[in-house]
Amino acid sequence: MTIAFDYETWLIQDGILAPPVVCGSFFDGVHSAELKLRDAALAETRAWLLTSDDMVGANVAYDFGCYLAARPQDFDLVWDAYASGRVKDVLIASTLHAIAEGRLIEGELLDKNGRRMVDPNSGKQARRYTLALATWEWCGRKDAKANDTYRLRYAELDGLPLSAWPPEAIQYPKDDAVNTLDVWNAQLKGAKNLHEVSFQTHVAFCLHLSAMNGLRTNPERVSSLAGIIAEKGGELRDVVVAAGLMRPTSRNKPDELSKDMKAIRERVQTAWKGQAPLTPSGAVSTAREVLEESGDPVLEALGEVSKWEKLETYLPSLQTASKVPLNVRPNVILATGRTSYDGLVQLMPRKGGVRECFEFRGIGSSVDYSAIELSTLSQVCLWTVGHSLLADAINSGKDPHSILGAALAGVPYDEFRARYKANDEATADLRQGSKAGNFGFPGGMGPVKFVQAKRKEGLSICNLFYRDGRCGEEKVLEWRERPCGSPTCKRCIEQSEELRSQWFSTWGEMRPYLAWVNAQLETKDWVEQFVSKRIRGGLHFTNAANTFFQGLAADGAKRAVVAMTAEMYGIEESPLNGSRLCIFAHDETIIDIPNLGVDFVDKAARRQAEVMVEQMRTVVPDVKVSAEPALMKFWSKEAKERKDEQGRYIVWDS
Asked: Contact, 449 vs 480, CB < 8 A?
């Protein structure tokens, strides 16, 4: 039997992602839907947890989070239900089906006709599935939220007997349970990737537990950042205002400035000598990278203004997080298999000081797999073409970037490594260019796109090789009779072609691998991922080439998150017990370890890395996987591995 259930709760507030339960609705498809008040609803949930029946919900991680906030002693019961595959989420099932059909593209949901999906309840474009949208898609009904008058008002009814509740307040939760089971039964008949639902639902629960714990910021650092933003932004605005590119919105509000877009576009066109990049609609682009690459100091200042204005938008969240935990909203499954976060955490800039405002309650431990997508790429090549020089290099302990760099420099590997370790700048730049190639070319990216992608990351390919600062002196609008899309440095393209040619020569398995990928798409636009068997549709060559090794890395990292969460919450003898997951970003986990001494923290960090390697090895059996912790008090991308004289991991930023 399968039971669908749903809670109505008090509203989510800053710092409270698991508010009090008001009532719960239950529907088994045999009896009429039931509505029970808090205590009875919690007891009913526990009774179902004690059975072997499946439990299905819509955003069910939220419901179980609220359940555990009320009954933390039942964690093992909830965990066992997830671990045994009994918990399903119809919204995750809908997303997995959309991935199989190629209808989840760059975070947008499309219908079967390729149009953006609109939620029938809100009337807005849907980027994630809601129960209303899933009910419409799977059951053909737009009435899922017909009785939603009290949807955000159940706190008003808390403590009242059901006899005092308005009829629509009683019917709405029942509708949710009925619609959830109706959707699930329809999915059982026709959903693709259904075999993945239990696992991805389990991962979603782990990420929700992390979100419930939340992130905190240091108030002094937030205040300091606010001052820096105001000072730097003000200085740059003065330059731009003096040039007439920004002006007061009105006489009555002289401090409120707006951009003069006509003047800005004219200046961009002049700076780019009539070859300014264009937007898709054909207008002169004023994107920040266009301004920063214009060679015009005023336009560069305007680009800097945009950066500081962007940083300013983070301040409200940072200030809130200095008082109560910031509860981020994770998204468990993208088309690639990776996860993401809504808002600040996903979009956080690498530089500017935003990240460094976050302070761990104890000691933060960041463990990042070492070049994991090179390991997964190697594994995929072993499976598809039967050999991999890249796998041989990784397994022998050599640095793949230095192997490629040595080939480009025409020197032996050992000599190249010696120069690199001696901090030779030219060698370091050559290795950096090789690193860009090793990560950029496996997806079938051509030289022009490669140059443009790296430029957005602030990397000039030709300057890495020539080191003369002359990047961009000659730009082209087309290459090999194909448009570039925007003016692109000719020398960068030429150098990228040389880099790509050497990349193919160094890793002899790559041409056969890309040919194999191409063969997969000859008669269809979908592929099946290795190990997980998850289907991904709507593919073209480059995202197909990427998806095999990216998806494998995502699946292994998710297995690690589940295994770590089990130890953090439920295995008392584990060094990880009591630690909490803060962030899961592709191939990195950051946990907060209680600061109970150097030995305690060292053991927890080591176990974190061990679990990550152990779980990744379940999907990458033939290629070496490695990961090392970096400890920190404040979140930083610059954190490095550091040990004391006894070989124990210690805080990097102390």
From this structure: no
Average pLDDT, the chain: 94
State how far the Cα of 613 lies from the Cα of 623, in Å rounded to an integer: 11
Q: 117 near 110, Cβ under 8 Å?
A: yes
Residue 123 tokens, joined: 């009337």
**pLDDT of the residue at 349:** 75
Long-range pairs, 332-336, Cβ under 8 A, ≥24? 332/92, 332/200, 332/203, 332/204, 332/207, 333/92, 333/95, 333/96, 333/99, 333/200, 334/104, 334/107, 335/99, 335/104, 335/105, 335/106, 335/536, 335/547, 336/546, 336/547, 336/550, 336/551, 336/554
Q: What is the pLDDT of residues 20-38, one digit of tens each?
A: 999 999 999 999 999 999 9
Beta strands in 481-550 (DSSP E): 482-489, 527-528, 535-536
pLDDT in tens, 530-581: 999 999 999 999 999 999 999 999 999 999 999 999 999 988 899 999 999 9
The two three-digit tokens of residue 209, written as one number: 């537990």
What single letter denotes the amino acid at residue 540?
A: H
CB-CB neighbours of 394 under 10 Å: 23
CA–CA distance, 266 with 506 (Å, rounded to integer): 47
* Helix runs in 243-314, H state only: 261-271, 288-292, 297-313
User: Is 226 in a helix, a strand, or coil?
Assistant: helix
Strand segments (E) across 63-166: 87-89, 104-105, 108-109
Cα separation, 533 vs 310, in Å, equals 40
Under 8 Å between Cβ of 529 and 548: yes
Closest CA to 183 of 64, 242, 97, 109: 97
**Residue 254, pLDDT score:** 66
> In this predicted structure, what is the pLDDT of residue 283?
87
List, for residues 204-219, the tens digit of each pLDDT value: 999 999 999 999 999 9
The end-to-end CA distance of the chain, in Å, is 55
The answer to whether the beta carbons of residues 369 and 645 sit under 8 Å apart is: no
Q: For residue 90, give the amino acid letter.
A: V
Q: At what angle do helices 131-139 and 167-190 cross, to 10 degrees?
A: 50
Label the pairing between strands 588-593 and 627-634.
unpaired
Share of the chain above pLDDT 70, in %: 99
d(CA 387, CA 622): 11
Secondary structure element (H or E) that encloses residue 116, with its range: none
User: Quick count: other Cβ atoms within 10 Å of Cβ 420?
Assistant: 18
Residue 173 in this model has a pLDDT that exceeds 70: yes
- Per-residue pLDDT of 84-122, as tens digits, reads 999 999 999 999 999 999 999 887 899 988 899 998 888
Please name the residues in contact with 95: beta carbons below 8 A apart, sequence gap of 6 or more: 104, 128, 129, 333
Residue 554 near residue 336, CB atoms below 8 Å: yes
Read off the pLDDT of each residue in 178-203 and give the average, rounded to a whole number: 98
Q: Pairing between strand 359-369 and 627-634?
A: antiparallel
DSSP count for the chain of H helices, then E strands: 24, 19
**From CA 193, how far away is CA 101, in angstroms rounded?**
10
CA 70 to chain centre: 30
Instruction: Express each pLDDT in 476-534 by its tens digit.
Output: 889 998 998 888 899 999 999 999 999 999 999 999 999 999 999 999 999 999 999 99
Instruction: Please state the length of the chain.
Output: 654
